[in-house]
């Protein structure tokens, strides 16, 4: 005669372990998303602060704009969202909401930077990058590696990445303004559109804005490594 | 597709966890039984039944002498114990080694053309007239007290066979150390299965039967090269009770290198799969108790779930490595890519890692109890380390091959 009670007890204990694993995983997933949300809030606040500062520019000069004028956290925010997209522990709805906010913050940051460029004559280099998560796009993945490497190399470079097929009105508007075709990956670098994969070397050679940045970095490196002459 | 894969993965982990929990509950239940068993074994044996041990030998010249001597050293009345050595057409010096015992009063020697282990056993079984009969592989050695710790179990008229605890003889290579831990696990598992009447193998080394088991159920058959497994399943099918005496120790020489271990385990797994296919009528059949309702289905599914879990883990790690390679090829080498991120956000905290932690914790608990049961104490040895690091990677090798051979009906060889 089989003692089914033992089977039921074993099932309850196993189900409890399973439930605990799911509960803890969700709890930590939520905490991670809260972190992302907190970063987004900080970025939003940074942008608001910059916009306010910008509005005050009417009364002051461009010299007052410090190096921390634009938010520094957009990059790490993007990395975290990209990581979260490939994980199963996050609530899809929450993640989509955060992604939407992220794209809007990127556009706001981009607009602010454009206004700053016009007003103060600063020439920051920025890249609008369009990728796809809907279709299999190996080149998009590789392009992502290239842009991360470029951003690490050039601190002044700002990369704004957008999911081409993500349903956000502002992203759609950006796509229609620049007439970006669905031939992804696509990049807009200082007004010029580039399609398909480009290596770091390709971009540094062919894109004038990056050429300038590369020269700037080289000059800065030279200045720091050269020994001052003592007369 | 990903959802189905995740579902399978969760299902596999659930079954593994469930089995571990089931074993631990059984362990708690068995405690009282173990005390009673200890008390029973401590009592002096009043009636010694006659016992015959059959040693089938095929090219075991290096170990057979030691095997026979271990039998002659058994703490058991000499007039009640006899040994039959069967030379199954050996081509090495086994015949010469056996001849050294031809004048021994307890030993008789038989010779035949090579026909496989089961034929050697059957030849001897036809001549057995003792109350009990057992086998001992010619690469195994019995502890002097082994028989004394087995015989008292036969006081229970329902018990038809008693199996011992098998340990690894003098492990030297890394793989033998891994097997030492694995065998400890086996000692724990068999004792638990014994309690629920679900033993599905009567191992070659020193399983002792009532002689009438063979007259009633017939002798050994080929059993897909695992005649010991077939015999146990046949007994279970006929409701013949098999128990384990975990205090009866037998030492066996285990494969020292991977090719030998691989071959042995392919045979074992292939034998298991094909024998359970032959006895599939026992599956989910209440008539056969725990072995039919739970142990055989779980043991069979564990072959598939192990392959699936290991396959998924390897695939995920391979994907990570391929991503890294794609990065290298795209942007060149950078230490930054190799160094792990110190941001906790990037630590995987999905359900699977937590389930793995849960399963691993239970595995460590069972491992602790197993080693304690096998050795009486737990020392942190290199074997434990080797086992934890290596075992999971080598098991899929023979599981895959055995499954492949079963599916495509390919035969396997003994050696």
Topology, pairings included?
The complex is a heterodimer of chains A (231) and B (415).
Chain A: H1 4-56, H2 74-85, H3 92-120, E1 126-131, H4 138-153, E2 158-163, H5 169-177, E3 186-189, E4 192-195, H6 200-206, H7 208-225
Chain B: H1 2-42, E1 51-57, H2 64-72, E2 81-88, H3 94-99, E3 107-112, H4 117-125, E4 132-135, E5 140-142, E6 159-168, H5 174-195, E7 208-210, H6 212-217, H7 227-237, E8 241-252, H8 258-278, H9 289-331, H10 335-338, H11 351-375, H12 382-407
Parallel strand pairs in B: 1-2, 1-4, 2-3, 6-8
Antiparallel strand pairs in B: 4-7, 5-8, 6-7
How would you describe this structure to a colleague?
The complex is a heterodimer of chains A (231) and B (415). With 231 residues, chain A is of the alpha+beta class. Chain A has two domains: 7-122; 123-222, 3-Layer(aba) Sandwich (Glutaredoxin). In chain A, 62% of the residues lie in helices and 9% in strands. Chain A contains seven helices and four strands; from the N terminus they run H-H-H-E-H-E-H-E-E-H-H. Chain A starts with a helix and ends in a 6-residue tail after the last helix. In chain B, strands 3-2-1-4-7-6-8-5 form an eight-stranded mixed beta sheet, with helices on both faces. Chain B has a domain at 1-44 and 159-200 and 237-315 and 347-415. The longest helix of chain B is centred in the last third of the chain and has 43 residues, at 289-331. Chain B starts with a helix and ends in an 8-residue tail after the last helix. The interface between A and B is medium-sized, with 34 and 33 residues.
Tell me about the biggest sheet of chain A? Answer: 4 strands, mixed
Q: What topology, given as strand order, has the largest sheet of chain A?
A: 2-1-3-4
**Helix percentage range of chain A:** 55-70%
Average of pLDDT of chain A: 81
Average pLDDT level of chain B: 92
């Amino acid at each position: 005669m089989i003692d089914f009670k033992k089977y039921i007890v074993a099932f309850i204990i196993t189900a409890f372990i399973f439930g605990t694993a799911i509960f803890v995983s969700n709890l930590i997933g939520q905490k991670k998303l809260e972190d992302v949300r907190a970063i987004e809030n900080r970025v939003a606040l940074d942008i608001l602060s910059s916009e306010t500062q910008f509005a005050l520019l009417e009364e002051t000069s461009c010299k007052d704009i410090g190096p921390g004028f634009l938010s520094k956290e957009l990059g790490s925010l993007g990395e975290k969202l990209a990581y979260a997209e490939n994980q199963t522990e996050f609530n899809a709805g929450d993640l989509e909401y955060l992604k939407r906010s992220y794209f809007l913050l990127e556009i706001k940051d981009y607009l602010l930077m454009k206004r700053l460029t016009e007003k103060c004559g600063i020439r920051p280099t920025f890249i609008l990058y369009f990728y796809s998560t809907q279709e299999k796009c190996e080149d998009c993945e590789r392009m992502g590696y290239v842009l991360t490497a470029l951003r690490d190399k050039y601190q002044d470079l700002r990369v704004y990445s957008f999911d081409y097929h993500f349903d956000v009105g502002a992203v759609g508007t950006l796509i229609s303004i620049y007439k970006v075709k669905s031939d992804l990956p696509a990049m807009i670098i200082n007004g010029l559109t580039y399609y398909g994969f480009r290596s770091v070397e390709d971009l540094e050679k062919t894109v004038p804005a990056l050429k300038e940045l590369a020269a700037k970095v080289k000059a800065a490196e030279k200045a720091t490594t050269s020994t001052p002459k003592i007369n | 597709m990903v959802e189905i894969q995740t579902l399978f993965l969760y299902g596999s982990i659930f079954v593994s966890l469930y089995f571990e929990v089931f074993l631990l509950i059984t362990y708690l239940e068995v405690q009282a039984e173990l005390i009673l068993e200890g008390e029973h074994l401590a009592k002096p044996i009043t009636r010694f039944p006659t016992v015959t041990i059959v040693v089938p030998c095929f090219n075991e010249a290096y170990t057979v002498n030691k095997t026979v001597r271990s039998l002659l050293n058994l703490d058991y009345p000499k007039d009640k114990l006899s040994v039959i050595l069967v030379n199954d057409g050996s081509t090495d010096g086994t015949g010469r080694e056996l001849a050294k015992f031809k004048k021994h009063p307890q030993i008789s020697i038989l010779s035949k053309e090579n026909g496989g282990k089961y034929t050697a056993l059957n030849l001897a079984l036809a001549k057995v007239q003792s109350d009990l009969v057992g086998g001992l592989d010619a690469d195994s050695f019995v502890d002097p007290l082994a028989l004394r710790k087995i015989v008292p179990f036969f006081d229970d008229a329902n018990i038809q066979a008693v199996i011992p605890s098998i340990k690894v003889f003098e492990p030297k290579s890394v793989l033998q150390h891994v097997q030492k831990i694995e065998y400890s696990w086996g000692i724990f598992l068999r004792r638990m299965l014994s309690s629920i009447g679900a033993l599905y193998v009567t191992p070659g080394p020193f399983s002792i039967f009532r002689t009438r088991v063979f007259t009633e159920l017939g002798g050994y058959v080929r059993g897909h090269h695992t005649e010991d497994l077939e015999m146990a399943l046949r007994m279970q099918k006929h409701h013949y009770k098999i128990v384990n005496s975990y205090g009866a120790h037998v030492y066996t020489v285990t494969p020292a290198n991977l090719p030998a271990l691989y071959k042995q385990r392919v045979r074992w797994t292939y034998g298991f799969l094909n024998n359970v296919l032959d006895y599939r009528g026992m599956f989910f059949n209440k008539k056969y108790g725990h072995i039919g309702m739970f142990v055989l289905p779980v043991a069979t599914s564990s072959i598939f779930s192990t392959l699936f879990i290991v396959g998924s883990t390897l695939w995920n790690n391979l994907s990570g490595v391929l991503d890294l390679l794609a990065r290298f090829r795209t942007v060149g080498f950078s230490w930054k890519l190799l160094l792990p991120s110190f941001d906790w956000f990037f630590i995987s905290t999905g359900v699977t890692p937590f389930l793995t932690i849960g399963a691993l914790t239970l595995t460590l608990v069972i491992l602790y109890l197993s080693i304690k049961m096998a050795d009486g104490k737990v020392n942190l040895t290199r074997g434990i380390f080797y086992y934890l690091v290596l075992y999971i990677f080598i098991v899929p090798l023979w599981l895959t091959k055995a499954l492949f051979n079963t599916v495509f009906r390919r035969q396997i060889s003994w050696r």
